[in-house]
Amino acid sequence: MTAPVSELIDLLSLERLEDNLFRGQSRDIGTKYVFGGQVLGQALSAAQATLDTARTAHSLHAYFLRAGDVGQPIVYDVDRTRDGGTFSVRRVTAIQHGKVIFFCAASFHADEPGATHQATMPDVPKPEDIAPSAPLSPAALARLPTKVQRWLDRMGPFEFRHIYPRDELDPPKRPAQQQVWFKLSERVGDAPELHRALLAYASDFHLLGTTTFPHGISYYQPNVQMASLDHALWFHRPFRADDWLLYSIDSPSAQGSRGLARGMIHDRDGRLVASTAQEGLIRVVADADAAAALPAA
Q1: Residue numbers annotated as active site
Q2: Does residue 207 contact residue 35 with C-beta atoms inside 8 Å?
Q3: Residues of the chain with confidence (pLDDT) below 70
Q4: What pLDDT does residue 31 have?
Q5: Which of 62, 63, 77, 171 is the most buried (most CB within 10 A)?
């Protein structure tokens, strides 16, 4: 297993401190603070570890309260809120430096038959027909802050192929929608719990960024401040995070320094496997110094 994938698996494999208390390490991937997907994946892993019955996650609703410190571990406190006849609910609180930085509620359901329908997958090119993104030139990287350079120059655990790529360093204005194929870069085990945690991690990529498309701005610009405020994730059908998945995202609204994005995730056979929604902070200021002086979300 390559280093990026093994590091991510380790990141999602929490240390159990007590029956309902877990500790996860943090990973600096070039973002200013802890990547939101890391906290989502770890919180779901913690919640899944407290189930005593064969139930699978069907929804997660989360709030990001404070920026996470990439240099310190995070403690996850799980409340076993309810174990009913077919549903279980867990509330997970993430703590760093003695303060709550995140909390979520996750619901789990025993498999049972019922009515079935789904939204149709968009008609897009197959991932094999899309060339991988070309790396930035050394000259282009050199113009960016060090943290952003590390983010763009790293080999991450997921591979992404954009249907309509956008130049994030000089972004044009375009409609607030995009489709991205993604998958874990190599095969891993079959445990469904692992694949759900991996999808929770990956679901934070590209979602909020779609809200910037009509405005010709980007997270990589020094005068732009962006942060996830909340995140919702629904699991519909079984899937593998190491097979190609299509993330179809649109943004119906941006206002008051906040943008809303929605996503649907289909597997390559066209089955809708998950849906997402996220609202995030989007601030555009005069320059980089002004952005740095603004308080975090």
Answers
A1: 204, 228, 278
A2: no
A3: 143, 145-155, 287-297
A4: 76
A5: 62
Q: Please state, in angstroms and rounded to a whole number, the distance separating the CA atoms of residues 23 and 46.
A: 9
CB proximity list for 279: less than 8 A, separation 6 or greater: 229, 230, 258, 259, 260, 261
Cα–Cα nearest to 4, from 229, 201, 266: 201
Tell me if 254 is assigned to some domain: yes
Task: Give me the residue label for tokens 């809708």.
Answer: 272
| Domain ranges, residue 99 | 3-110+133-293
Which phi and psi (to 5°) does residue 139 adopt?
Answer: -65, -40
**Number of independent structural domains in the chain:** 1
DSSP 135: P
CATH code of 167's domain: 2.40.160.210
Which residue's structure tokens are 């991932």? 127
What was the pLDDT predicted at 295? 53
Query: If you write DSSP's letter for every residue of 68-98 in order, what string do you get?
Result: PPTTS-EEEEEEEEEE-SSEEEEEEEEEETT
pLDDT for 96: 97
The pLDDT of residue 150: 61
